[in-house]
Design brief:
Blueprint lengths: L11 H4 L8 H5 L14 H6 L2 H40 L13 E10 L8 H20 L2 E8 L3 H11 L10 E2 L4 H4 L7 E4 L15 E5 L10 H9 L2 E3 L3 H4 L10 H14 L2 H8 L42
Parallel strand pairs: 1-2, 1-5, 2-3, 4-5, 4-6
Helix pairs in contact: 5-6, 5-10, 10-11
The structure holds S-adenosylmethionine.
GO molecular function: tRNA (guanosine(9)-N1)-methyltransferase activity; tRNA binding
GO biological process, one term: tRNA N1-guanine methylation
InterPro entries: MT_TRM10-typ, MT_TRM10-typ_sf, tRNA_m1G_MeTrfase_euk
Length: about 325
């Protein structure tokens, strides 16, 4: 069925001519039903039609005339997009597309826990959503992908992810969304849940395909220390931190962003070496002794005083996926 006809799956651009019933779009292009000269019938026959039928004929003919031009433009757009992507791949800024046939499944399961909507200001919501999108993108490209889940996506995060990425259309082979909290979504597998949190005294020295690893879907600029550790302890599930300090010397605290942790997991699964995984993912400037690196930050006190809830005014996160 051609775009513009009722029920047709028309491209957005193609739908426009029929979007306004008063023929305003046609007038803007210099054609209105009153001075339209049909090609598919005589002018007399056209005039005998009802107003609605005339509009329908006009829209159809306008579309027929523009279809080739429209398709050509779409083709050019796709070509340009591909060219820009290839340039980014050549500069090492984007991974080369990997055919699905070259991907294998690692058996590891990872959940992004999005239950912290009310703890973030708008900038942080944008930032965490960019991080979720990044996780999906790298999982699609990873040589050994994980079963990636997102739990308790609601409120502003849900809205933002929808408007910024149309996540509803993401490929369910690479990501699965749950309305429920992971503790309910995986109720029968509670003993397999491991919350990854920088505050845990335990370390995850290896990744077990039998476990389900949870990453806290939050950008909080350290406003909520122990947030995820406390949650895991309250729920009685296991927790662990990644062994970052054992392999690399950091200039800053070892609290990473959601996508950094996720990318470390993927890299470790691929090469089986934590040090390389950390070196590949952590930004250079965060290493101690890095040229232009930051001054070491003091490690947090074991039991820091909780800071007051943010009213959003101190929210200073960026919109980038990783900081
Ligand atoms: C920006 S951090 C959130 C910090 C937050 N205050 C908390 O209590 O988790 C985002 C998430 O990344 C994961 N994460 C960050 N650094 C980690 C580390 N060193 N080891 C394990 N997981 C880490 C945790 O799941 C954390 O919830």
């Amino acid at each position: 069925m051609e775009p513009g006809a009722a029920g047709g799956a028309a491209p957005e651009e193609a739908k426009r001519p029929c979007a306004d019933s008063d023929g305003a779009a046609a007038k803007r292009r210099g054609t209105s039903v009153d001075d339209f000269a049909p090609q598919s019938m005589t002018l007399e026959a056209f005039r005998r039609l009802s107003r609605n039928q005339q509009k329908k004929v006009m829209r159809q003919e306008l579309w027929d005339g523009r279809a080739a031009e429209f398709k050509d433009k779409q083709r050019q757009k796709r070509r340009e997009c591909r060219r820009r992507h290839n340039q980014r791949v050549a500069r090492g800024e984007a991974p080369a597309r990997r055919p699905a046939s070259e991907q294998t499944h690692s058996g590891v399961q990872v959940v992004l826990d999005m239950a912290f909507d009310d703890k973030m200001c708008d900038k942080e919501i944008k930032s965490v959503c960019a991080q979720v999108a990044r996780c999906y993108a790298v999982n699609r490209q990873a040589p050994r992908q994980v079963a990636l889940h997102v739990s308790r996506l609601y409120g502003k995060c849900r809205q933002r992810l929808g408007s910024a990425t149309h996540y509803e259309n993401w490929d369910a082979k690479h990501i699965v969304f749950h309305d429920a909290e992971y503790i309910d979504a995986f109720a029968l597998d509670k003993h397999r849940l491991v919350y990854l949190t920088a505050d845990s005294p335990n370390t995850a020295d290896r990744l077990d395909p039998d476990k389900i690893y949870i990453i806290g879907g939050i950008v909080d600029k350290n406003r909520y220390p122990r947030l995820t550790l406390d949650k895991a302890e309250e729920q009685g599930i296991a927790h662990a931190r990644l062994p970052i300090g054992q392999y690399v010397q950091m200039a800053t605290r070892r609290v990473m962003t959601v996508n950094q942790i996720f990318e470390m997991l993927l890299r470790f699964i691929e090469i089986g070496d934590w040090r390389t995984a950390f070196m590949d993912v952590i930004p250079q400037r965060k290493f101690r002794d890095a040229p232009g690196g930051q001054e070491p930050e003091p490690e947090p006190e074991p039991e820091p005083e909780p800071e007051p809830e943010s009213d959003g005014s101190s929210c200073a996160s960026t919109e980038k996926a990783a900081d």
